[in-house]
Design goal:
Elements (H helix, E strand, L loop, with lengths): L1 E5 L20 H17 L4 E4 L11 H16 L3 E4 L20 E3 L4 E7 L2 E7 L7 H12 L8 E7 L6 E2 L4 E2 L18 E5 L5 E4 L5 E4 L16 E8 L2 E8 L5 E5 L7 H9 L10 E5 L3 H6 L2 H7 L5 E5 L17
Parallel strand pairs: 1-2, 2-3, 3-4, 6-7, 7-10, 10-12, 15-16, 16-17
Antiparallel strand pairs: 1-13, 5-6, 8-9, 11-12, 13-14
Helix pairs in contact: 1-2
């Protein structure tokens, strides 16, 4: 059995239905990688397409964006592929409804449940539940029991989640999660599991439970913030056979993210612009650029409209506020992503 596992697509991110300004939008980066994954599922004839949560960028999404997300799934389903979806925290643990949910091969972990899928001589039980937003450590055992995954008779048992797990690492500072109310401890996973698949953490990584069960985070399909600027993005292709489980991480395109820090001594607009222009030759045409201001005076002097004139249309640019300055003026001074 072949399973394509991805998560944290955050579709709808920087994808306004009625944009007030015509410029390159980052939302297409996410949709392009999403479509690539769906096409890969079809062309490589996978048996299961599993999304580990945060399909959408937030819980309230315009109807045209919802339709744009769900519509291409019909082609996947009509290809005979089982599609499993885990509601994430960005959806507030509940996906927007669609008539597509009536398709017999599309199943949502909208409650603790187990889905049994068989392929030739292999039977795999996929158990899971929607994101638990409060005290997952305390609720975890009950949710696993309620899913009935451990009671299922199958060759393999896979737990599907959208949660933070102990020892997961995020950000450029390599912050490591410690177990607590909102973090599942590695010793909490039952011994009878063969694999744990989880979304929520945006960096691709593989952990191990105390019992030794692999815990796979595929990471997000694109860089959602500068904290992810050094991370490789992609998805996992998982092969399940009578002899065991193998996996392969596959990389997706991710636009480079660069930061330009302004010298504190500069204050007037012309000097600031000149400092930025001196960096232009080293910036890729498809980059996402953040201008890091050192003082509030620099924030007052910089205008996002002026920056857009400097950079190619293919570049997204933002102004980062210095420490201690509130974001109240950010709407006028950022590229909005």
């Amino acid at each position: 059995m072949k399973v394509l596992f991805f998560a944290d697509s955050h579709l709808g991110f920087d994808f306004p239905v009625r944009p007030r300004i015509e410029r390159r939008r980052r939302g297409w980066d996410f949709f392009n990688n999403y479509h690539h994954i769906l096409e890969t599922a079809i062309t490589e004839n996978v048996d299961v397409l599993l999304h580990g949560g945060d399909v959408f960028f937030r819980s309230k999404i315009p109807k045209p964006v919802i339709e744009k997300v769900y519509e291409p799934l019909l082609k996947v389903l009509d290809s005979g592929i089982d599609v499993l979806l885990v509601p994430g925290n960005h959806e507030r643990s509940r996906l927007p409804t669609t008539p597509l949910f009536r398709h017999p091969q599309l199943r949502v972990f909208d409650r603790p449940r187990t889905i049994l899928i068989s392929q030739e001589s292999i039977s795999v039980a996929f158990g899971g539940f929607p994101n638990i937003r409060n005290d997952v450590a305390g609720e975890f055992a009950g949710a696993v029991d309620a899913s009935c995954l451990l009671d299922e008779h199958a060759n393999f048992k896979i737990l599907c989640l959208h949660q933070s797990i102990e020892d997961a690492v995020v950000g450029v500072q390599n912050y490591r999660f410690r177990k607590g109310r909102d973090v599942i401890g590695k010793e909490q996973f039952p011994a009878d599991l063969d694999l744990i698949l989880s979304g929520h953490i945006h960096r691709q990584q593989i952990l191990r439970s105390t019992e030794g069960t692999p815990i796979i985070y595929p990471g997000s399909i694109e860089r959602t913030s500068f904290a992810e600027r050094l991370e490789t993005k992609g998805y996992y292709m998982i092969e399940i056979s009578e002899t065991g489980i193998d996996w392969e991480f596959r990389e997706l395109p991710a636009r480079p993210m660069l930061e330009i820090s302004l010298p504190e001594a500069l204050s007037d607009e012309s000097a600031l612009i000149k400092a930025i222009q001196s960096r232009l030759p080293s910036i890729p045409d498809d980059a996402i650029v953040r201008i890091r201001c050192a003082t509030e005076t620099q924030v007052q002097s910089m205008k996002i409209s002026r920056l857009r004139e400097i950079f190619p249309d293919s570049v997204n640019v933002d102004i980062a506020l210095p420490p201690g300055v509130t974001g109240s003026r950010r709407g006028r001074r950022s590229d909005g992503y």
